[in-house]
Amino acid sequence: MENPKIGFIGLGTMGRGMADNLKKTYPLCVYNRTRSRAEALAAAEIAGSPREAAERSEIIFTCVSDDRALEEILSGSGGLFEADLTGKILVDSGTTSLGLTEKIAREAKRKDFEFLDAPVTGSKSGAEEGKLMFMVGGKKEVFDRIVPVLKTMGERFVYCGRTPNGQSAKHALNLTLSLVLESYLEGLAFGLKAGVPLKAMEEIFGNSGAKNGIASFKMPYIKKRDFAPHFMLRLMDKDLKLAALDRARFGVYAPLADEIIKIFDQALSRGNEDVSTIAKTLEKANGVSFSE
Question: Known catalytic residues?
Answer without folding.
Answer: 170
